[in-house]
Specification:
Structural class: alpha/beta
Low-confidence stretches: 918-928
Protein name: Aconitate hydratase 2/2-methylisocitrate dehydratase
Keywords: Iron, Iron-sulfur, Lyase, Metal-binding
Number of helices: 31
CATH topology of the largest domain: Aconitase, domain 3
Largest sheet: 7 strands, mixed
GO molecular function: 2-methylisocitrate dehydratase activity; 4 iron, 4 sulfur cluster binding; aconitate hydratase activity; metal ion binding
Helix content: 25-40%
CATH class of the largest domain: Alpha Beta
Number of strands: 33
Strand order of the largest sheet: 8-7-3-1-11-12-13
Mean pLDDT: 93
Organism: Sulfitobacter undariae
Strand content: 15-25%
CATH architecture of the largest domain: 2-Layer Sandwich
Pfam family, one: Aconitase
CATH superfamily of the largest domain: Aconitase, domain 3
Length: 928
């Protein structure tokens, strides 16, 4: 019983850390538990029995395989355990979700012992994680005249696994807890630097907010045992920045309900709220767990006597409170009236939180059950030859006669499943859609693999065109945590059918390329739908949605996702870029001009349809990537035909490089993508299906026209860490010109990297170093400059074109894949650091700037503690700017003046853009 004694030793170690025994996923350990259970006189028997019943993970884990087999033996009578009767064994099987438990239930249901078969069938009727092989087995038995199979199928055709569930409570009492003021990043709920522990739910739960906050939540629960804690973002949006399933898991762990008494630390049904609601990508994650997300609207803009918004001295709207949600308030959610009450007083309508679809998720204890349930009911009705009478809320189909389609509406109409024949769907429709490309990243991938095991999935859906597992979020440091987690993840995903950044067999060099860049390359259709486990899954081809690890798992397993068609905001451009400006400045200016035009963020929760027809996919990605920070649901880049063809040719060449490196799989996924790209190029060139464009009579929520003529200085997104209004700190809405800082704001570190940069940015760094060398004889850095190319392809191309040589000349550190860093850097010298391709400082989970630093970066993250943490004396700042501004600031050790900036970039080939209607020669830049 060596595995068991090792497990006991681990339990002792965890107990010293105030942790419970880790849930068991190892079949060999479960086999040892069974041996101890059979030995009725063994001193360890009681403990082994307890672990077997209450601490063994379900789904398709090897532990579940062994557990299900033993339970089947108990039911058949070949094994006897006093504490586990056949009836209890059936109950345990019913909580194992799928895979081996379904296999056991099917064998018992279709077996010769009619009494057992009937009992097994009753349990099987409650299950919904059935896959094609399971359904085919049932169908074959039915066709052979098996009465039990017919009985089960008839139950499935009525969706009794759903209809017989209890209805949701009419009234849900909640006790309020303000987690923070202002926008709450999911980093507060699940810090990036604790990513290594996400799959250990109890351990990871200890990092939510602070230990003090956790204690306060527990005190509220003790004082109000009949109420559920509602976590609130006061004067802000809950869950900005990323979907982060681990954040929802943590909230559920502290405030939700246990999903099953036999599965520890898997909780569901959290309730979260925000003055400005829930970030769209985070709200999807809440739905996965059957939770509720509420838009409180408890602060509104103050109006004067003429109905105009009252502004403060900074030009920001003055807010006034309509009702209080201070910590400790007892409120009531009424699911029938769909209102939030304090006593008898109605506070706000929350019908958007309780749509028929969301109520189904709550009733079914999560969205997975509904997705699988619909498929199972449809299969049963078809097998029995019955008309399908769906037990679920119908797909919400909204159609406006005579109204054209936006780009996202066109994509959803093409990919919709299960809608009325001939239906033309507009925004607001809620439908199932086919998913073409799926991405899993490495700090959420272990959770995705857990979700796949939990839903009993063993192989990727054949309808998915391509899927990729990255290694970019753990690229900076190959420490013991990464060494323990990443190979296991890559092995699982490789077997599941994904293209993996690291080869479990070691045949090809480990790639740490930024996942969004890889997904952007393997997306070879502008009509595609992409789902990725990161908020920056924002492609410049097709429409991409950042998602939680559970939604990613669902897309991998089923090839589908369910979501509403969002409204769109159209963004177009006029005027001409100044020669000394970089396209990143256009991106920042878009946000600034939008806020000035509308006062409110019209992008939030909507699709940004951006007309960047003259930019290649890599450069356009700088815009679409930033739309996550604009709080948009997603974005779509409208491209011209010849530009799209060129982007697809670049994508083909990069996919071919992946093939040449040995990354192809048995299903020939990568070659299939090249074939699809060729087919799409042929359609565009022939004119049979031009590049995606909206209809002229499409309807938009708003239209933003960005004036390039008035962008005359580099723009910086500032976290405004000392704003007196806490709610206005760490948003991406404070966009300032470089002159605002007067050329004297100290910069402690510069960072060029992350998914926001492309090959052109790396060339800009090299060109600036050459310019500065020519002007001054040599280049000296007054602040460290960290440079991380997004992909190895870019580095290879820079080496071939001579730019890497310049970067090497000035580097004091260059990454070495044969000897990767084993520990995170804590101190920086005033030199150039050439880091491994990957997320690096932007991710903040492995390396950060020194505490209290002011960082100027090309990345997207300015949240508190993400890139740089605070000291007791000074708040860390992460300001975001273009590559040339960052490089110059590192050389100067401060923000540059506009004159210094113009001199430094003279003659440098910056990323240019001209609106399609004003296209000029050379608009695309020479970087490609």
């Amino acid at each position: 019983m060596s595995l068991y004694t090792d497990y006991l030793d681990e339990i002792g170690t965890r107990k010293a850390q105030d942790l419970s025994p880790k849930p068991i996923d190892d079949g060999a350990l479960v086999a040892e538990l069974i041996s101890l259970i059979k030995d009725t006189g063994n001193a360890h028997r009681e403990g082994a029995l307890n672990f077997f019943i209450y601490n063994t993970l379900p789904g398709t884990t090897s532990a579940a395989v062994v557990k299900a087999a033993f339970l089947k033996e108990i039911i058949l009578g070949s094994q006897t355990v006093a504490e586990i009767t056949p009836t209890f064994a059936f109950e345990l099987l019913s909580h194992m979700k799928g895979g081996p438990s379904i296999d056991a239930l099917l064998e018992l249901s279709l077996g010769n012992d009619q009494a057992i078969a009937q009992q097994a069938a009753e349990v099987l009727k409650t299950q919904f994680f059935l896959y094609d092989a399971d359904m085919e087995r049932l169908a074959a038995a039915y066709k052979d005249g098996n009465a039990i199979a017919k009985d089960v199928l008839e139950s499935y055709a009525k969706a009794e696994f759903f209809t017989k569930l209890p209805e949701i409570e009419e009234e849900i009492k909640v006790i309020t807890y303000i987690a923070a003021e202002g926008d709450i990043s999911t980093d507060l709920l699940s810090p990036g630097n604790q990513a290594h522990s996400r799959s250990d739910r109890e351990l990871h739960g200890k990092c939510m907010i602070t230990p003090a906050a956790q204690a306060e939540i527990q005190e509220l629960q003790k004082a109000h045992p009949d109420a559920r804690v509602m976590l609130i973002a006061e004067k802000g949006t809950m869950g900005v920045g990323s979907s982060r399933m681990s954040g929802v898991n943590n909230v559920a762990l502290w405030t939700g309900k246990q999903a099953s008494p036999y599965v520890p630390f898997v909780n569901i049904a959290p309730i979260v709220a925000g003055t400005n609601g829930i970030s769209p990508i985070f709200l999807t994650t809440v739905g996965v767990t059957g939770g509720i997300g509420i838009d409180l609207k408890n602060w509104v803009k103050k109006l004067d006597a003429d109905g105009k918004t009252v502004m403060d001295a900074n030009g920001d709207p003055v807010l006034e409170q309509t009702y209080s949600v201070e910590t400790g308030k007892v409120l009531t959610i009424n699911t029938k009236t769909k209102k939030l009450y304090e006593g008898d007083k109605e506070l706000v309508d929350i019908s958007s939180s309780l749509t028929p679809q969301k109520v189904e998720f709550i009733k079914a204890r999560g969205s997975y059950a509904v997705v699988f349930g619909k498929k199972l009911q449809t299969f049963a009705a078809e097998t029995l030859g019955q008309e399908l009478k769906s037990a679920f809320a119908p797909s919400k189909e909204i159609s406006h006669e005579g109204q054209g389609l936006t780009a996202v509406e066109k994509i959803f109409n093409k990919n919709a499943r299960g809608v009325s024949p001939g239906a033309v769907l507009h925004a607001g429709s809620d439908v199932r859609v086919m998913v073409n490309i799926v991405g899993s990243q490495d700090t959420t991938g272990l959770m995705t693999s857990q979700e796949l095991e939990a839903m009993a999935a063993t192989v990727i859906s054949p309808t998915v065109d391509g899927a990729y597992q990255s290694g970019c979020h753990t690229a900076s440091v190959w420490d013991l945590k990464a060494q323990a987690n990443i190979p296991k993840l890559m092995s699982f995903m490789n077997k599941f059918g994904l293209i993996t950044a690291r080869d479990p067999k070691g045949a090809y060099h480990a790639m740490t390329d930024v996942i969004h860049k890889v997904l952007n390359d393997i997306t070879v259709d502008d009509w595609a739908i992409i789902i990725g486990g990161d908020s920056h899954t924002r492609m410049s081809k097709g429409v991409a949605f950042g998602a939680d690890s559970g939604t990613v798992a669902l897309a991998l397993a089923t090839g589908e996702a369910t979501m509403p068609i969002p409204e769109s905001v159209k963004v177009t451009f006029k005027g001409q870029m100044k020669s000394y400006m970089d396209f990143r400045d256009v991106v920042h200016a878009t946000q600034a001009q939008m806020l000035k035009q509308f006062g409110d963020n019209v992008f939030q929760g909507r699709i940004i349809e951006v007309h960047l027809g003259t930019l290649l996919a890599d450069q356009a990605f700088t815009f679409t990537d930033w739309t996550a920070e604009m709080k948009a649901k997603a974005s779509i880049c409208i491209s011209e035909d010849d530009t799209l063809v060129e982007s697809l040719e670049i994508a083909k060449s990069r996919i071919q490089i992946m093939i040449d490196k040995g990354m192809e799989n048995d299903a020939q996924t990568l070659q299939g993508l090249i074939d699809k790209a060729d087919a799409r190029i042929a359609e565009i060139k022939s004119g049979s299906k031009p590049a995606l464009t909206p209809d002229d009579n499409a309807k938009y929520f708003a239209e933003v026209v960005v004036d390039l003529d008035i962008i005359d200085e580099p723009m910086i997104a500032d976290p405004d860490v000392n704003n007196a209004d806490v709610s206005k700190r760490y948003t991406h809405d404070t966009i300032r010109t470089v002159s605002y800082y007067g050329g004297d704001k100290k910069v402690d570190l510069g960072f060029v990297g992350s998914c926001m940069v492309h090959k052109g940015d790396m060339k800009i760094v090299a060109q600036m170093l050459k310019n500065l060398e020519k002007a001054n004889g040599k280049v000296e850095f007054k602040a460290p400059l960290v440079v991380a190319a997004p992909t190895y392809n870019i580095i290879d191309e820079l080496k071939a074109e001579g730019d890497w040589e310049i970067l090497q000349k000035y580097s004091g550190f260059e990454f070495d894949d044969f000897m990767p860093k084993a520990t995170a850097r804590t101190e920086y010298e005033n030199i150039l650091y050439l880091e491994r391709p990957g997320c690096n400082l932007c991710m903040g989970n492995q390396e950060k700037a020194a505490k209290g630093d002011t960082v100027l970066a090309t990345s997207t993250r300015l949240f508190q503690g993400r890139v740089v943490e605070d000291t007791t004396e000074k708040k860390g700042e992460s300001l975001l700017a273009s590559t040339p501004v960052v490089v110059l600031a590192a050389v100067l050790g401060r923000t540059p003046t506009i004159e210094e900036y113009k001199t430094a970039v003279e003659g440098i080939d910056l990323t240019k853009f001209s609106p399609p209607v004003e296209k000029v020669a050379g608009a695309r830049s020479a970087h490609f």
